[in-house]
Amino acid sequence: MATRENQLGEFLRSSRGRLEPSAAGLPGDLTARRVTGLRREEVAVLSGVSADYYTRLEQGRERNPSAQVVTALARALRLTPDARDHLHRLAGLLPGLSDVAPTRVHPSLSQLVDAFPRAAAYVLGPAFDVLATNRIADGLLFPFGDERNMPRILFTHPAARTVFVEWPLVAGATVHALRLNAGRFPSDPGISALVAELSAASAEFRELWADHTVAGLTRAYKVFVHPGVGRVELTYQTFDVTDAPGQQLLVGTAESLASQDAIDRLAAMAHA
């Protein structure tokens, strides 16, 4: 796991390693390369800094790049908006949203969750603890018992790979979003404790965390195989909660009539 002392350098190194030279607009025959991604010298040229300066950034010997340099690096590395903001935060140019995000759900948000009678709705905290659910979401989580932290479910619960049909996609997206939140809430003890716990418990988590990819939770398609109602296909939409930074409302709607029937049966089971 990367140390906080050189997270900027770790992120730069990982980002250039993922970028294909052709995607960066580099010409010529690149088939003789021994490693994937861009070389340090190439990132330096593309971003308009010296190779020595860029090397010092990666090695942690330079820790205070200007906003202009960080913007140029983000452009050279073809970073997504989430990754670009993450880079600026690591460079100390964009503050975290809060020292510690709120962990209690506002009563009005709890009422909103219950306003989706035919969809799975729940609220996540910054470490992806499930803070509130409606009946359908609670039914979907039933196979995991009392556990209500999504990364812990995915990487330690024995039922996770059965329930989540596309486990690698869900697990990867969750870790990428957790890494983004770690940059947004650098002092949040829940995130740091969870990362330490899962890094010790799961080699797959360690590998995904070390990749340094960041991406927020957005629109996503998920497939569940629930022991009570069978296959459920949902499209999730994620909404940030503006008056509770770090909390997100997720709403999953059925992708088919069969899936709608399944979640209706989940709702009926909850009423029984």
From TrEMBL:
Superkingdom is Bacteria
Residues annotated as domain HTH cro/C1-type: 37-84
Matching InterPro entries: Cro/C1-type_HTH, Lambda_DNA-bd_dom_sf, MLTR_LBD
**Pfam families reported in the protein's UniProt record:** HTH_31, MLTR_LBD
- Name any one GO molecular function: DNA binding
User: What name does the UniProt record give this protein?
Assistant: Transcriptional regulator with XRE-family HTH domain
The species this protein belongs to is Kutzneria kofuensis
Q: What is the lineage of its organism?
A: Bacteria, Bacillati, Actinomycetota, Actinomycetes, Pseudonocardiales
